[in-house]
Write a structure and sequence with these properties.
alpha+beta, two-stranded antiparallel sheet, 11 strands, 12% strand
């Protein structure tokens, strides 16, 4: 069975030394000193390592079952969920007015990484609840918040979001679910939703669904969509549970992965619902949940890569296979361990350099969310730009790294009992849900680059330029500044190509959008590695007692800059080839 131990030392390095959270002015950050962060992450690790990790394979093998209209989760999930609730983990970064602990979203992200690495399917139950909580917290009335949030913060009640229908996914303007207004301010919701993660469970007393639907007579398309709170069981005015609502699970999907999480077909038969936010402005409220969820899905890409990598390293050190071409390294054994071979080292270094760069990128994104929530418009705009990159790039690469970890095992990686298949299968969905990655790329190029006159992407370019200028003459930084500067120029050239060609031929921009998302992601990781390198060099110059850690960090960063960051040139060449190679064939020729 695969194992998992949280990378606390690296998490602390990013939080304390790279992001310098305890020195930041963002509310709540002053409480995040090193000792406090270590204490919280160490306790989270115990939950992840000792409770969630042993259930990961159980959830994969057993899956969920629909019995008499109720979803039964795998053995051990209910007890683990109670431990999660009792430990206060579901309330970590929630509003104290509703029972939360009020810690920053950034710390919740770091803890969430651990839980997702240990058991992604399980962690989705509370993760989706957190997203629903956030939407109600931002857009709900005082009455709605008082009625639903305390039980959602504690996860006595779980939450979902219901967008997709059988005939429409990304194009939500086509939805058919209706919301008929009643005389008492409520609505009758009728329709069917599919692919609803955590749509039902036996972990909580109630499920609070957030459902997109159209009020008859509203505007056509996406402008006519509203968002509704639809509880599985009606909630009385005193907070007690009443009658069962007109909500049912029609079916459970048989999936490639995340078997321990129930992916449901949800039927709404004149279910009672309550408007959340403004009529016909449902997407505004839903995006509060979706943007948080997209960063969380990017985290899932990192989390699965981390768990798979940890096990690949163990296997590479233990498995004896062949001899080192430069000389025997294990003279007392019949062969040397796999890790002596350059191609295995390449494989593991690809994983390690991605994971550590991705962690810094993800945590920076979470920090920007905290700053934006505190009223920092520049931070809000920057994370809005970065959201499709965080989601799309980290999940694409996270899946690739899980596959590379599987490859280290050779044939055993293909055998279920070794567990590597599950990491790959679970990681695969992250590239699809919360907006398929192709859609993320279109959003990035079609909307986010030009947002607010393009000032956010220009701010990013200025950030990279300032970093390179400030560190260009620093001893030891040449291996980082040079490649980052070149990669940033590739990113700017790609943006310029879109500006020059996108208006006259929109396909020229859209055909290159996926490559642009990856080009942008690689530059972001390059910037993160530059920052981590500077911290490491400073620590070594100061005579740190942990020189090995920082030397390893520098070697890993140099690998990324030399072997991964130059891929920006390939992405740029593809972008500048335009739309013609992509659109050359008529549809009938496929």
């Amino acid at each position: 069975m695969p194992s998992y131990t949280a990378p606390i030392k690296d998490q602390i390095f990013v939080l304390q030394e790279v992001l310098k959270v305890s020195d930041a002015e963002t509310p709540g950050y002053s409480e995040l000193d090193k000792d406090t962060c270590e204490a919280i992450l160490d306790e989270a690790n115990k939950m992840a390592r000792d409770v969630l990790t042993p259930l990961n394979a159980v959830g994969d093998q057993q899956g969920c079952v629909l019995e008499n209209g109720v979803v039964r989760t795998p053995d051990g999930f209910k007890d683990a969920f109670e431990q999660m609730k009792q430990g206060g983990w579901t309330a970590l970064d929630c509003d104290p007015d509703y029972g939360g602990q009020g810690l920053p979203y950034l710390l919740g992200t770091a803890v969430g990484e651990q839980f997702s690495s240990a058991n992604m399917a399980f962690t989705m139950y509370q993760g989706l609840t957190h997203g629903a909580y956030s939407a109600i917290h931002v857009h709900g009335t005082d009455e709605q918040k008082a009625k639903y949030l305390p039980k959602m913060v504690s996860c006595d009640w779980t939450g979902t979001m219901n967008l997709t229908e059988p005939h429409c996914g990304t194009d939500l303007g086509l939805m058919r679910t209706k919301a008929e207004p009643q005389g008492d301010g409520s609505y009758k919701i009728s329709g069917q939703k599919i692919f609803i993660s955590a749509g039902d469970n036996d972990l909580s007393e109630n499920v609070i669904h957030l459902v997109l639907a159209k009020i008859p007579g509203g505007p056509d398309g996406i402008k006519g969509v509203s968002l509704f709170i639809v509880p599985k069981i009606m909630v009385n005015d005193d907070g007690s549970l009443g009658e069962r609502n007109g909500v049912s699970v029609g079916n459970l999907e048989e999936k490639m992965g995340i078997h321990g999480n129930a992916t449901c077909v949800m039927n709404y038969d004149e279910a009672t619902g309550y408007l959340l936010g403004t009529e016909h402005k449902g997407m505004r409220a839903m995006f509060t949940m979706m943007n948080e969820a997209r960063l969380g899905v990017g985290m899932q890409g990192l989390a699965q890569a981390e768990a798979a990598y940890q096990n690949a390293v163990i296997y590479a050190k233990d498995r004896l296979q062949g001899r080192d071409v430069t000389g025997v390294k294990n003279p007392d054994g019949p062969a040397d361990p796999l890790i002596v071979h350059p191609d295995i080292r390449r494989n593991l270094m690809d994983q390690k350099s991605f994971i550590e760069g991705a962690r810094a990128f993800l945590y920076w994104g979470a920090q920007l969310i905290d700053q934006g929530n505190d009223g920092d418009e520049a931070a809000h705009g920057l994370v809005s730009l970065m959201t499709p990159v965080l989601k799309g790039f980290l999940t694409d690469q996270g899946f690739d790294m899980a596959i590379q970890a599987q490859q280290v095992y050779g044939g055993h990686g293909y055998i279920e009992e070794w567990g590597m298949s599950q990491f790959a299968r679970d990681a695969r969905i992250a590239m699809i849900y919360e907006g398929a990655n192709g859609v993320q790329a279109l959003d990035l190029v079609g909307r986010k680059l030009a947002q607010d006159g393009g000032k956010h992407v220009m701010a990013f370019f200025d950030m990279v330029k300032s970093f390179c200028k400030g560190n260009g003459d620093v001893d030891g930084m040449a291996d980082f500044v040079g490649p980052l500067k070149a990669a940033s120029k590739d990113l700017q050239a790609a943006g310029m190509y879109f500006m020059q060609n996108g208006m006259t031929n929109p396909n020229a921009a859209l055909a290159g959008s996926y490559d642009f998302m990856h080009l942008f992601g690689r530059v972001c990781l390059g910037l993160m590695w530059g920052r981590m390198a500077k911290v490491s060099l400073d620590q070594l110059a100061a005579g740190t007692a942990d020189a090995a850690f920082y030397e390893t960090k520098l070697a890993t960063g140099r690998y990324y800059m030399a072997r991964q960051l130059p891929m920006t040139k390939t992405h740029l060449a593809r972008i500048e080839s335009g739309a013609d190679p992509v659109m050359a064939l008529d549809a009938d020729a496929f």
